[in-house]
Task: inverse folding
C-alpha cells in the first residue's frame, strides 16, 4: 500500500510533535533573606552554613518542594523594605511584633533561643555594680553607660518596649550595615560601648572568632525572665496572598520537624554545657506546645 508523500510528511511530523517533551512549569522562587549575624547565619569560614538559621532554613526549604529557593544577605532595614514592597521574600527567625504584623505574616514559632542578654567586657563589671543580673531599665537610666544595639532588630516584646521608652536618650547607639554583630563587638573592645544587647551565643561566637573569650561575659536582663516570649521567634513572609499560602505550608513543615533531633540540635550545639539542660526542658514543655 502506497502513501501519498504529503500524507506521509504529516504523519512523520505528528510523531515528532508527540515525542517532544513538554517543558515543566517553572517553579515559583522564594527569596530567603539572611543577616550577617553569626552564629545565627554563618556565611564564611570553617563553620559556613552551619549556623542554626542556616540549618532551619535548609529543613524548611527541603519541605517546600514546589518552590525554587534563592538566598540573599542584607541588613535588617533592607529586609523590611522588601517585606513592605510585597516581594516574594521570607526570613526564618523574626520576633513577632504589632508593627511587623502590618506588613508580614508569621508562622508558629520556628526558633527557641535563650533570651537577649547584656554582653560586656569582664573588666567593666564594676560599672554594673558587680552584678551578673541587672535591670535593663536601670542601666539605660544611667547616662554614664553607653549600650549598643542593631537598628531595626527586635529583641522580643519586653526588651523592645524598654528600648522604645529610652529612644533618643543619648546612651543607646544603633548600628547599621551588614556586619551588625561584629561591628558592635569591635566598638565594645575599643571602649566606645559599655555593653551590647544580644543573644548569649552571639557573645560566645564572636569572642571565639576574635580570640577574646576570656575578656567577655554576659549579664542576665531581669525583665526577660518573666515568661518565654523573648525566647521564641518565627518565620516571616510578605503580607499578601502569596505570603499567606507559603506560611500555611511552612506551619505544616514545622509541626513535623520541630520534634526531630536535627531541628532541636541546630541551636543547642551553640550553647555552653550549663545552658543545655534548661534549654531542653523549655524546648519540650513550652516550644513544642506553642503553635500560635
Result:
Amino acid at each position: 500500500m502506497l502513501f501519498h508523500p504529503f500524507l506521509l510528511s504529516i504523519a512523520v511530523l505528528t510523531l515528532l510533535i508527540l515525542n517532544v517533551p513538554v517543558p515543566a512549569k517553572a517553579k515559583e522562587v522564594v527569596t530567603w533573606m539572611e543577616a550577617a549575624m553569626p552564629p545565627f547565619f554563618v556565611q564564611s569560614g570553617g563553620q559556613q552554613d552551619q549556623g542554626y538559621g542556616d540549618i532551619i532554613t535548609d529543613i524548611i526549604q527541603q519541605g517546600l518542594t514546589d518552590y525554587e529557593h534563592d538566598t540573599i544577605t542584607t541588613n535588617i532595614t533592607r529586609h523590611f523594605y522588601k517585606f513592605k514592597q510585597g516581594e516574594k521574600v521570607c526570613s526564618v527567625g523574626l520576633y513577632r511584633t504589632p508593627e511587623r504584623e502590618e506588613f508580614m505574616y508569621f508562622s508558629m514559632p520556628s526558633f527557641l533561643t535563650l533570651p537577649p542578654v547584656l554582653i560586656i567586657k569582664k573588666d567593666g563589671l564594676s560599672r554594673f555594680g558587680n552584678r551578673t543580673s541587672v535591670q535593663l531599665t536601670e542601666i539605660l537610666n544611667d547616662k554614664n553607660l553607653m549600650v549598643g544595639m542593631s537598628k531595626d532588630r527586635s529583641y522580643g516584646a519586653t526588651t523592645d518596649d524598654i528600648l522604645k521608652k529610652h529612644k533618643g536618650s543619648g546612651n543607646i547607639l544603633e548600628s547599621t550595615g551588614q556586619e551588625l554583630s561584629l561591628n558592635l563587638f569591635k566598638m565594645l573592645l575599643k571602649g566606645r560601648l559599655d555593653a551590647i544587647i544580644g543573644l548569649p551565643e552571639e557573645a560566645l561566637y564572636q569572642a571565639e572568632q576574635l580570640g577574646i573569650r576570656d575578656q567577655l561575659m554576659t549579664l542576665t536582663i531581669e525583665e526577660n525572665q518573666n515568661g518565654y516570649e523573648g525566647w521564641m521567634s518565627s518565620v516571616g513572609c510578605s503580607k499578601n496572598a502569596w505570603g499567606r499560602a507559603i506560611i500555611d505550608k511552612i506551619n505544616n513543615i514545622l509541626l513535623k520537624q520541630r520534634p526531630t533531633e536535627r531541628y532541636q540540635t541546630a541551636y543547642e550545639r551553640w550553647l555552653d554545657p550549663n545552658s543545655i539542660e534548661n534549654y531542653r526542658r523549655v524546648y519540650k514543655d513550652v516550644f513544642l506546645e506553642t503553635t500560635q
User: Anything to note?
Assistant: The chain is about 40% helix and 20% strand. The two ends are 74 Å apart (CA to CA). The CA atoms of residues 34 and 73 lie 5 Å apart. The chain has a mean pLDDT of 88.
